[in-house]
Amino acid sequence: MPEEWERIDSLILSGQSIQAAQAIREQFGPISIRDTVEALGKRFEYLRDACPGEFTVNLDGYWDGFYS
Question: Cα–Cα distance between 14 and 43 in angstroms, integer?
Fold first, then answer.
């Protein structure tokens, strides 16, 4: 995993969606909220394919945590 994604991936895998979004903006910003959410969703899908055993929720469940 590329170094710039290590912290973000760790946050995603631990279900910390808001912190992962903040880390994306810190690492790759300044970017809009829309672009941040899109990047987060794409990385989530990448990680689901790369290491499916690491997840306890699907993408819908993950977004529930992001928007609540």
Answer: 14
Please state the pTM of the whole predicted model: 0.77
| CA distances to 16, 23, 25, 27, 44 from 49, in Å | 19, 21, 23, 23, 9
Tokens 């895998």 map to which residue? 13
- Whole-number Å distance between alpha carbons of 40 and 34: 10
Total number of residues shown for the chain:
68
Assign residue 14 a region: left if phi > 0, alpha if psi is -120 to 50, beta otherwise? alpha
Evaluate if residue 56 carries a pLDDT over 70.
no
| Residue 66: predicted pLDDT | 55
Report the pLDDT value the prediction gives residue 31, as an integer from 0 to 100: 94
